Fold D-3-phosphoglycerate dehydrogenase.
Amino acid sequence: MTPKVLISDKMDPKAAAIFRERGIEVDEKPGLGKDELKAIIRDYHGLAIRSATKVTADVLDAATSLKVVGRAGIGVDNVDIAAATARGVVVMNTPFGNSITTAEHAVALMFALARQLPEADASTQAGKWEKNRFMGVELTAKTLGLIGAGNIGSIVASRALGLKMKVVAFDPFLTPERALELGVEKVELDALLARADFITLHTPLTDQTRGILSREALARTKPGVRIINCARGGLIDEAALKEALDSGQVAGAALDVFETEPATASPLFGTPGFISTPHLGASTSEAQVNVAIQVAEQMSDFLLLGGVTNAINMPSLSAEEAPRLKPYMALAEKLGRLAGQVLGEEVRSVAVEVEGAAAELNPKPITGAVLAGLMGTYSQTVNMVNAPVLAKERGLDVREVRHDREGDYHTLVRVTVGTDAGERGVAGTLFGNKAPRLVEMFGVGVEAELAGAMLYIVNNDAPGFIGKLGTTLGEAGINIATFNLGRRDAGGEAVALVAVDGEVPAAVVEQLCGLEGVREVVPLRF
Ligand SMILES: NC(=O)c1ccc[n+]([C@@H]2O[C@H](COP(=O)([O-])OP(=O)(O)OC[C@H]3O[C@@H](n4cnc5c(N)ncnc54)[C@H](O)[C@@H]3O)[C@@H](O)[C@H]2O)c1
Ligand SMILES: O=C(O)CC[C@@H](O)C(=O)O
């Protein structure tokens, strides 16, 4: 089926062109209201957005075919990530495409504050020629306080160093080595507030960063400080900023982002020393082309090849890796499904071991597929995206082990599941590097293709059993497609995996359970 993508925000036409080139149907409908989006979203497998579209839980509820949301930009605060993850929808962004552009906007606003450019421009164009009114400050030798030294913050730092500023940075995740590399001094927030002549914010909006420039923090700044925010509204207390501008504690502030956007009214508007732009940080033709190309390529790779790049809610998987991993993920999913169907919901732990060729691959998608298969036996909505989160919520202890030993098989995936009764494992390989095949079940060597309707039967190894089994199924009109046998030891426990054409009714399962020597019968579905 041809995947279908909706572009619901204004985006460079290159995005739509790439989707079409790659054989994906695409509709461009920027500016849709929430109800309009909800009315049409069910038809789409991909949704490409910037910051205007709000991908809320109710939009996701209506998006029954949706597999991926692609954000042409960095911040994903307009997407309910938890709701997307719970519904198995991958959310990806383009983390580097607009970093330089946004850093340049922050530097532009720093200059604009230092020389009061917007006010001087307005006054001059009003015919006033107020040469004495607009006395500026130099940037050279001033201290720039960087709150957040990630992608954008570090570009701002390099530009500021080029302008001969001193840069101090507050970022709990900045290592001393990285600070040295950037040429910045790592400081605590209080020291930054006390020392900085200019402060620029470059953090995401999180519970820790919300209101990082609070009323109290603003009161601790160096008098006459100038503040720039090109990151996210909500990092600064806007009411307190207005008071600090009025009192002169803050000499100037430039906001590209606001607590509520679009910001069409604000007590800050018209305040002397205040500059604003309408969330223009990423708005250059270069950045918009970058993010449009990146988001379209990433979403196409995912929809067409299963490649996952820059996903917020699942591990990465390159488009080159994806075809190699695909058969392993199918095998892993089948092994998880087998264990889940036989062991029920009482699972406490899952260990995924890989050896041989499998050990050379990224184990995360294999583990994700095992968990999706395992939990998919009791939840309709579980998939690779939400399985690891659901496993965590259920308190499952999940382990990944890579072996570089030589085994009997050129490649092997083993899934060991722990329940209150102990640990039991199933293992499988790939025939011809592509066909998933079970090779061991709970310590018994048994080879089977896990497909369609099957029966898992444990019985005492005794002559005549297979005949009775065949007769019972035959009398019930159930055709046996394949029959796979294994046993722990002669005369001990034997295992049969029987592929049948069609479902086995509960009454027939009961009849089989009643056969002499039968210990367990579980109908399976793959
Ligand atoms: N105005 C715009 O148009 C525009 C454009 C692009 C990005 N942005 C925003 O800019 C922000 C930064 O983007 P980025 O690409 O540099 O992100 P990033 O993830 O590369 O960097 C964020 C930095 O913030 C740091 N950080 C996290 N919590 C912190 C805390 N409590 N205190 C101090 N530092 C903390 C992190 O350690 C990290 O180094 C994001 O919010 C993004 O959405 C805005
Ligand atoms: O798309 C935009 O214009 C804004 C992007 C910016 O906020 C981001 O986080 O990348």
Q: What stands out?
A: The first helix runs from residue 13 to 21.
